[in-house]
Structure formats: C-alpha cells, structure tokens
Design brief:
By secondary structure, the protein is α+β, with helices and mostly antiparallel strands. About 50% of the residues lie in helices and about 10% in strands. The protein folds into three domains: about 45 residues; about 90 residues, no CATH class; about 150 residues, NADH Oxidase (3-Layer(aba) Sandwich), CATH 3.40.109. The termini are far apart. About 25% of the residues are buried.
C-alpha cells in the first residue's frame, strides 16, 4: 500500500516527504535518547528494528537450557567451564582449591556427554584431559570430593592426557617477521573480480582449521561457516546483501559466517557472536590468501526483510544470525582493487593514563 501511494507523488514530492519524516524522526530521537526507559519506549512505539534480536536472543537462551540435558556434537557449557578450569590451572600462583562454584555442573554435563555419546571426539578428549588434570592437582573439600566421585564413575577414554595447558616456551617457533606479516596484510585486499574457476572445498576446510585458532570468549566458538560452492547459489545469496550490485554475479564461491546465540544463557553475551566470528573470519581470509585464494568480506545489514530472506534460503534457525558474507575465489589479474586509504595510528591510538604515578 505504501509503495502504491508513493507512485502518486513526483520525485520532488517524494524527497520532500522523506525529508519531513526524517526531521520528525530526529525530533523523536532527541526527545527519547536521554533516558534508558524512554529509549526502550521509543523502540516499542516507533521502530521494530530490534524485534528480531529480541526473539533470537530469547530462543537462543531457551535452546541453551535444553542443551544442558540433550548434548549435541558440541556443548557450550562444557566448553566454557573446561576453559575456566584451564585458566585456574595456569593461574600464578595457582590456588589450592578453585572452581568449587561450577565444578559439579561441569561434571554433570560431562557425564551426560559420555552417556549420550554425541559429543565430538576431540571435545570429549579435551574435557576428559582437563578434568583429569584438575582432580590430580586440586586439594579436596566436600564439593570437590563429590565432583571427583561423579567424574570417576564415567567410562573415559584411556588415551594419554595431551589436551591440557602447557608452557609458553613449548609453543612452535614462527619464522614470520614483521615485514613478512606486513606483506601478507598488504596482499590481502578486498577482491571483487574473480576468474570463473571453481574453488576447491578442501582448501576452504584447510583454512578453516587454522582460522579457528583465533581467540574466542571462553572458547565457545559460537559460529560456523556455511559454504556455497555453486556460483549460482553464491550469486543468489550475495545479492541478498547491500553493496554487491555489479559484482555479485562474478562471485564463484561464498561463505556465510553464522553466529549461534544458543551458546549463551544470558543477554549480556549476545554480541559475542559478532566479536568471535569476526576474529575467526579475519584469520580465515589471511589463511585463504596464503593458499592463493582472494576474498572480500561483505557487510550484512540487520534488516528484518533481508534477514527473513536469508533465513529461508539457507534454512537458518531463528537464533542463528548472519554475521557477514565472504566472497572467495581466484582473483582476476586485471581486476581493480580499491585503494581504500586507512586510518593511521595518529587517529586510532589514544594514550590513556588512569593512575597518578
């Protein structure tokens, strides 16, 4: 109806109406922006932009609760708590007793994972090794004794404990100099023009396996990479984003980085999917560059209509949020690259001193 009404107006009239509506909107923003309650009221009365996030967060929290009893291929709670145990194990000085407030829930979920036999092998081994190390070094009290008895009752893999914290000095040496890294960063540009050549999925998987070494809050890694290797599918999904007009049909392969809100029990962590997924995505782009593949991250707009389209096309659950799209392919040697002048340290670094000493 609104679109039909707009056809009755001239271009100048449409511009005038839009300008007037914008003025009214900014007047309302100035009126409601100074108090948290008023800000919430503004979005309740005048804008539905956060409705999808509200529902997605609640559905994620609901699914998180369900994951405590039905363990899947990965367990968000187990990953978080095992990582917390690791941080306790490497504390300097290490406390004689620690993790008493969450060790019983950790072992309880671990036992369900063992019983249900659905957890992926690597994650189960990591949890087993760290729990074994924890119960080896921690001093006992009533809480820990109960947890240890529960843990001992589980049938665990007998492999050597290799997935435990280790000393910094045992890290592999890296022969990459600052100049080498700078060259790689300069080499990795956003490429929009590609050869019409298939991208080998095994190269994507090879790069993903090292990209996920990126840091992640409590090691939950709340994301996945949906791969579209068919150029027609890649172009179809790329057109769903904004800013791809003119080059979407040229993309031979596309990755959709998807965040998973079911990894969190509380709203406070709802933005971690974007932080963690972006850290991994940057490493993925650099890894692909070393394999001869060029990339272009494509911003995903948080617009309800476009979210719904992508949800339907990719079969995404409501609690799964697209973080970004990523074009992948073999660069056209004659394709243009935007200069994209970058901000320098003069603009980006702010020296801060809090203490008076």
């Amino acid at each position: 109806m609104k679109k039909w009404l707009f056809t009755l107006f001239s271009t100048e009239q449409k511009a005038a109406v839009k300008s007037r509506l914008l003025e009214i909107n900014f007047f309302l923003i100035r009126l409601f922006a100074h108090r948290a309650l008023l800000s919430s009221l503004y979005y309740f009365l005048f804008s539905r932009q956060f409705d999808r996030e509200h529902k997605a967060v609640l559905q994620g929290r609901m699914l998180y609760q369900g994951s405590l009893s039905q363990i899947g291929r990965s367990s968000a709670l187990l990953r978080r708590n095992i990582h917390r145990l690791e941080k306790g194990l490497i504390m300097q000085p290490r406390r004689a007793v620690f993790a008493t407030d969450y060790i019983n829930e950790t072992v309880a979920v671990y036992l369900k994972a063992v019983q249900q036999a659905t957890l992926c092998e690597a994650e189960l081994k990591w949890a087993t090794d760290v729990l074994t190390e924890y119960f080896t070094v921690v001093q006992y009290n009533a809480v820990i004794a109960k947890a240890r008895a529960m843990f001992s009752s589980a049938s665990k893999p007998a492999a050597a404990a290799t997935s435990i914290p280790y000393a910094y000095q045992t890290l592999p040496s890296a022969a990459v100099s600052f100049a080498d890294l700078s060259a790689l960063f300069l080499r990795r540009r956003s490429v929009r023009w590609y050869q019409q050549k298939a991208v080998e999925p095994e190269l994507i998987r090879q790069a993903v396996n090292i990209a996920t070494l990126a840091p992640s809050a409590c090691n939950r890694q709340p994301y996945r990479f949906d791969l579209l290797s068919n150029p027609l599918d890649a172009a179809d999904i790329a057109r769903c984003a904004m800013g791809t007009t003119g080059f979407a049909d040229n993309i031979p392969c596309l990755i959709v980085v998807v965040g998973d809100l079911s990894c969190y029990p509380a709203e406070r962590d709802r933005h971690v999917i974007y932080i963690d997924a972006s850290l991994a995505a940057m490493q993925l782009m650099l890894a692909l560059e070393t394999l001869g593949l060029s990339t272009c991250p494509i911003n995903w707009p948080d617009i309800e209509q476009r979210e719904a389209i992508l949800q339907q096309k990719l079969g995404l659950a409501y609690h799964e949020r697209p973080v970004m799209l990523m074009a992948v392919g073999y660069a056209d040697p004659q394709g243009g690259i935007a200069f994209s002048q970058k901000k320098t340290d003069e603009l980006l670094v702010r020296d801060v001193r809090i203490s008076s000493g």
